[in-house]
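Section 5.1 Outputs to date
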Amino acid sequence: MGSAKKSSAARTARIEEMRRAEQARERRNRILTIAVSAVVVGGLVVGGVLLVRSQSDDDGGSTAGDSKNAGTFVTDKDGVRAWKGELGRNHVTKAVDYPVSPPVGGDHNPAWMNCNGDVYTDEINDTNAVHSLEHGAVWVTYNADAGKADVDALAAKVKKTPYTLMSPVDGQKEPILLTAWGHQRTVTGADDPAVDAFLEKFVQGRQTPEPGAACTNGLSG
């Protein structure tokens, strides 16, 4: 009982620390944006346009197959499926044909979905959600077979947990799935102990390619 309380307290402290860090990053970003805007001149604008055109040309050359790397899931003792294979991290503007649904990583859109405990009632773009995974978010997804009580309870949990997001994914095989970069598992419901265990391990976990990257100021649906 004591160990459970300690684990809960540690997780709460960790979430609060991430929330404070996110707020500090937002303040720094606002200051930086104001400073940069104050010194923009015509020559920089022209250079920026040329740079954007160059990047757009690069993205345009990417194909939907860029993220179809050879790989397979290997199930760990804790029931989590780990993707064994390289996951691309290129920014692309086209649709990506991911090998699993929902995807566990790969090439993705330059814009991420907001993942500061955001709950989406409609399906979201995979390529934006994958960018959120790259930032260390856990993506909770469900299909039509998931019970309403479980969906509501999971939504309430997500809303209280920074670096998480939730949305329906009609194409997934299991009713409820939890996904982090390179990892995924199914759970039986909102009260499955595996839910908290997965969040504890993978929210800003060691698998995160870009730890500390923002989960706000992205897309909101």
